Amino acid sequence: MTIRIDVLVRTLAQALDLVEIAYLGATSNHGRRIAVLCAAMGRHLGMSKDELSALVTCALLHDNALTEYFLLLKENAEGDVSRLGAHCEIGQRNVEILPFRENIQGYILYHHERADGQGPFRMSEGYCPLAAELIAAADMIDVATPLHLIPLSELETLRRGIEGDIHQRFTGKAGEALLAVLDGEMLASLRGDRIEAATTSAVPAWVMDSGDPALLPIAELIAHIIDYKSAFTKVHTRQIANRAWVMAEHYDYDPAQKIKLYLAAALHDLGKLAVPSEVLEKPGKLDQAEFEIIKTHITYTRELLSGAVGLGDIVEWAANHHEKLDGRGYPLGKGETDLDFNSRLMACIDIYQAVSEERPYHPRRSHAETMPILYDMADKGGIDLNIVKDMDVAMAPWSGKDVETPKPN
Ligand SMILES: [Fe+2]
Ligand SMILES: [Fe+2]
Ligand SMILES: [Fe+2]
Ligand SMILES: [Fe+2]
After folding, report:
1. Element (H, E) at 104
2. Taking the domains of the chain in order of start, what are their residue ranges?
3. Separation of CA 71 and ligand 3 centre (Å)
């Protein structure tokens, strides 16, 4: 079986759009519009398939540091992170763990540079990689006036504005490429009802064998971005993925099964990106209305993953983690017969992590303090007793410690 990396990246970008709306009130699909524009510019400039793949992936994820950046801002209200360049640095560092075939140095780091050197890193024309110039050009134009809102009648004015800004905002190459691709057809393809299809055809296929350990960093990146949505859960997803790996080794899964389970674990709370931070970060007990909002994260997870072709069972293992064997879980109230082994396992791992990790309303708990809570839930018919017993064995060595990230060999 194979996994489509391009589909995973597109899904992550879609989830990141939801963060932009939650934090900035910004128009949706910004990342996808930048990707579609960059793909067209890259093709216009005769880039190879690998170059295009690296450019479009970075374009889709150019603002991947948003969750981490806003958390840093919150935690260091007066610190030196409150500058534009910080999200460029974090974003670049995050994507560098992906197994690109091209050297992507500077692609995201320099996505706010201007030809006249007035960007955060003062890199004037000729000092940044071409891909960064293209992402910056597309970003600048879409931030100034979101392109999906521009009527066709204003296209000429927009184009004249770009022409007049070459060697100031836009570098010569990027400005000319932007003018070459920005026509009425392009504007139409960036609109809300067409952007999905436009992105699908813009992103070159990137396929990997599901047993390929190079998939692990991709899962790690996704988990990292989700975890930074809330200070309370900074390690939640990564620890769940690492625990899933430990359990997969305990059960002697083959390499592809292990990686698929790890990926499902990394994706299980993807929908949290769409949940307002005030609710995720409420220090006390949630009221009913807030709990209803939290519960939507799982619906978003299922929706986002169902749109990602080729994930197969991974969607179920990720999206069933709040279902219970006795039908009292959410959101679908599934029962024993609907939940396969890995769905049950994911539910147990999620509970183990939530109970053992430090939260504002409870301290970190040791293995010995965590297990009775899981046994109690199993006794009441909510989770699988045999899996709980297996976790009692496999998790014991990690009591009170963070589980290590698996190292691909
Ligand atoms: Fe940015
Ligand atoms: Fe942006
Ligand atoms: Fe969850
Ligand atoms: Fe979770």
Report:
1. none
2. 2-202, 210-398
3. 20
Which pair of tokens denotes residue 5? 């990396």
pLDDT at 16: 87
Low-confidence spans in the chain with pLDDT less than 50: none
Backbone angles phi, psi at 57, to 5 degrees: -65, -45
User: For residue 268, how far is its CA from the centre of ligand 4 (angstroms)?
Assistant: 6
**Per-residue CA distances from 189 to 39, 61, 182 (Å):** 13, 20, 11
pLDDT at 139: 96
* pLDDT at position 74: 74
Burial state string for 177-187 with b = 16 or more CB within 10 A and e = fewer than 16: bbbebbeeebb
| Ligand 1 geometric centre to CA of 114 (Å) | 13
Instruction: For residue 29, report the distance from its CA to the centre of ligand 2, in Å.
Output: 10
Cβ neighbours of 374 (radius 10 Å): 23
- How many angstroms is it from 62 CA to the middle of ligand 4? 26
Domain 2-202 fold: Hypothetical protein af1432 (1.10.3210)
pTM reported for the whole predicted model: 0.90
The architecture that CATH gives domain 210-398 is Orthogonal Bundle (1.10)
pLDDT of residue 68: 84
Ligand having the closest approach to the CA of 84: 1
List Cα–Cα distances, 133 to 39, 124, 225, 280, in angstroms: 13, 10, 25, 36
Q: Which ligand is nearest to the CA of 320?
A: 3
Residue 77 is predicted with a pLDDT of: 59
Ligand nearest to the backbone CA of 239: 4
Q: How far is the CA of 229 from the centre of ligand 4 (A)?
A: 12
Ligand nearest to the CA of 266: 4
Report how far residue 333's alpha carbon sits from residue 95's, in angstroms, rounded to the nearest whole number. Answer: 37
